[in-house]
Amino acid sequence: MSDDDAAFTVPSMTEQERMVEAVLFASAEPVSLCGFEARMPQGCDPAEALVHLRRRYEGRGVQVVRVGDAWALRTAPDLAFLMREETVETRKLSRAATETLAIIAYHQPVTRAEIEEIRGVSVSRGTIDQLLELEWIRLGRRKMTPGRPVTFVVTPQFLDHFGLESARDLPGLKELRAAGLLENRVPLGAMPPGPDTPDEDEASEGQSELFED
């Protein structure tokens, strides 16, 4: 075998696992298969290496998890309590922002008009802009209806923040209320829209900003 042939020898699967593990460990964001392929030698199979690596991490304190179309190393869910001292929550999503985010997550792709119909109140531009700045939502495809309104969908950053593989893994209403996200108030969509529907400022008692103390 020549030196050139040796240079193009495909690494063993064990070595490919090590490469995938190294990339995941060093990456601040989840890595897609294309991201692995761009870093690893030609002929490598990052998808298969991920399968083996994920199996090897089963039952460990750190797990290989899928986030949308990408992969990341994350603390095992049952050990999340160990990280509580490392997390400082300085701001809380306002009621308006929480409801808007929940509607987008559960009804995506959804237009602003549809969000307002479900909430029963108008949605301020500031609420949408702030959720976009957080990179928890993004613009989706325009709807094929009069006016071609833009739609909103959740992002991989949203899935990663809440430890979800896809939007199908979102919790139910009971779980959301148990976590204090809905604050046991009137269910979303319970208030019918109409000419006397209050706007967001009135419904949120002056809390039209995304964050509140």
Short descriptors:
single chain; 213 residues; alpha+beta; 8 strands; 39% helix; elongated; disordered C terminus
Give a short synopsis of this structure.
With 213 residues, this protein is an alpha+beta fold.
Describe the 3D structure.
The longest helix is centred in the N-terminal third of the chain and has 14 residues, at 13-26. It is built from ten helices and eight strands. By secondary structure, the chain is of the alpha+beta class. The strands form three sheets. Strands 1-3-2 form a three-stranded antiparallel beta sheet. It has helices at residues 3-7, 13-26, 33-39, 46-56, 95-107, 112-119, 125-133, 156-161, 173-178, 200-203; strands at residues 31-32, 62-67, 70-75, 92-93, 110-111, 137-139, 151-154, 211-212. Helix 2 crosses helix 4 (46-56). The model is unreliable at 184-213 (pLDDT under 50).
Q: What's the shape?
A: elongated
Give the oligomer, counting copies of the same chain as homo and different chains as hetero.
single chain
Q: Main beta sheet, described?
A: 3 strands, antiparallel
Taken in chain order, the helices and strands follow as: HHEHHEEEHEHHEEHHHE
How do the strands of the widest beta sheet line up side by side?
Answer: 1-3-2
| Distance between the amino and carboxyl termini | 68 Å
Helical run tally? 10
Strand portion, in percent?
5-15%
Mean pLDDT: 78
Poorly predicted tracts of residues: 184-213
| Total strand segments | 8
**Helix content range of the residues, please?**
25-40%
| Structural class computed from helices and strand pairing | alpha+beta
Instruction: Give the radius of gyration.
Output: 22 Å
